Amino acid sequence: MSDSAVLAAPISGPVPRIALVGNPNCGKTALFNALTGARQKVANYPGVTVERKVGELLSPAGARVQLIDLPGTYSLRARSPDEEVTRDVVLGRFEHESPPDVMVCVADATNLRLHLRLVLELKKLGRPIILALNMMDVAEARGCRVDASALSAALGVPVVPTVAIKRTGVVGLLDQIDRSMMVMAGDGPPAPCGWSEPSARDLRAYHQEVEAVLAAALRDAGKPSLATQRIDAALLHPAIGLPFLFLVLFLMFQAVFAWAALPMDMIDGALGWVQAAAGAALPDGMLKSLITDGIIAGVGSVVIFLPQILVLFLFILILESTGYMARAAFLLDRLMGGVGLHGRAFIPLLSSFACAVPGIMAARTIENRADRLATIMIAPLMTCSARLPVYTLIIAAFVPERTVAGGMIGLQGLVMFTLYAAGILSALAVAFVLKRTIFKGAREPLLMELPAYRLPSPRDILIGLLERARIFLARAGTVIFAIMILLWFLGTFPGAPDGATGPAIDYSFAGMLGHALAPLLAPIGFTWQIAIALVPGMAAREVAVAALGTVYALSETGDALSGSLSGVLAADWSLPTALSLLAWFVFAPQCVSTLSVVKRETNSWFWMLVMIAYMTLLAYGAAFVTFRLSSALLGG
Amino acid sequence: MTAPLSGSVSSPVARMTPGPAPGTSADPPPRFEGCRLGTLRKGQRAVVTGLDESAVATPLPPGELERRMIEMGLIEGARVEILHEGFPGSDPLAVRIDDHTLALRRAEAHAVLVALG
To answer: Which CATH architecture has domain A17-220?
Structure first.
């Protein structure tokens, strides 16, 4: 079954829908990847399993099937907005969606005692279920022997053993999907839903049933993962755990610089070549200016940061898929508790280093509303990858490329680390204030599984990275593209009057806007070019860099264009101005997508407005202090 | 499975039920003289004998903490072992429960009644 054949197949009648349901850490996402490959669509922004992912596949019988990956849950008794999605989909409570035709329940074969209860709950729905008995390889390695046919008999559902990360058992699962759909078609309407929210008494009864099933099907319980115990003995050690975690984070930020340098140079070279070629091929005039100064300079200055964003996501994906992320939450729970945050807030906050949008969405896994709101409010203070272009640009222009501490640490990386640290510390401070004022109350309990360590599958990491690259490039190709054209228009019209002495942009709409804002921003040392760039920067922070690129490209005359943007900035700005802008972007009044997701996730304009107000205030204050202090110290 | 549970899982303490606990004297708050998971130290093993969330301050509605704990495998008869303690304050705990490992805070672990062994 080739990709193109699947995608080109005509839509005829309703496509059968299959939902993947399972506990967190059961390998559900890996199974989804194994079944659909890269043929998956992620609605909006992906957290690991926060958003609903949909993929398509052809069953062996030739039926087109839609596969839905649902957020992991321990129970249909949803406790968080994330788990509510799962519950509502399987119960058919979503308005424009019929319930899934077949549910594939994924369970970790090494952890059936915990995972089988969900199967029993799903059985109550009266719809066809298939149990994918995942991680069979790990189970075997630990001497855990499960009799799949006995399990199937005891549960009364078909059982298919799988090893999702090695794509073993996928064919068997597809065959079973076909059989289940056929049985379903012959059965007529499904049995009425017999599920109701279980009480503690019902849960104990489920648990007893699980024990009975295990007595019939579990031949040998095997031993717990020795490797996991040994690794945890070191990584959760009171003296080693936290230093190791900070080392990992430090290496991550160093790698963002070091590993991305070469591909970024290559993209830079390619862009320069395209710009030159387009400039040579096109006749002088408006069109040439639009294409070279507007589109290529603008979009190009954002695309160049793709390598850094991918390196960052690579680390996050690896930390998540190895199981270390839960350890990080464990290690930080007590420290974060000091400012009133839940250990689980670590995952949304770390995701926010990539982008605040998936981070804020990942806060759905926090059940308590006050804890969740506090996490959402500080998530944009984590330095998202969209700020990276701004930092990189200014650091490249103003921080010399040399090493300190005997050649061990790059100075540029160190400055970058400081900026990230400033974001984290201010986030903790804000959380501290919030939890003592608006969000008073006891913390939500911590009940979090620490999954066995696992080697990540390169294929799954690659699929995850491709997804991120696709989303980033789609943004560069749509939102940023449109803004760049608008900005070029504002920066070009109306043209300079005859006999004008300054650069043309001075007389344009953008120039007028920048000059109007300039007095407001002068106390913090911003030039009018920065003032212009900040306006589109509201759409997305990285656009500020693209905007600077466009503004300077349009304001330079003739051959000055050939210099790189950082070179232009180094010549044009004072050091206090650069530092002030860095301080501004640590707090950077948030981008429109962050604000809209805050509005959506909190279901309130109020929290969105609070966020705008407090972040703008912090940004202005920090930039003011930085500018005044550095001006005084540097004698500027 | 909708059949009512046969009284096999009688926990040694009454849960959120008002009135005297069955089989004990008439004093309303049933006393439990055994051990609580939250008092164990690293390396200690025990068996869960019951859940008593009344001992814990929680923002959750009554009965919710108990249900979550059961869902995470903390149920009568489960074998537990303290694998790791967090820092500082030896909190939270990493507890092996039968086949899996759970992180929870000492404060909430006080809701789990255990018998050392």
So the answer is: 3-Layer(aba) Sandwich (3.40)
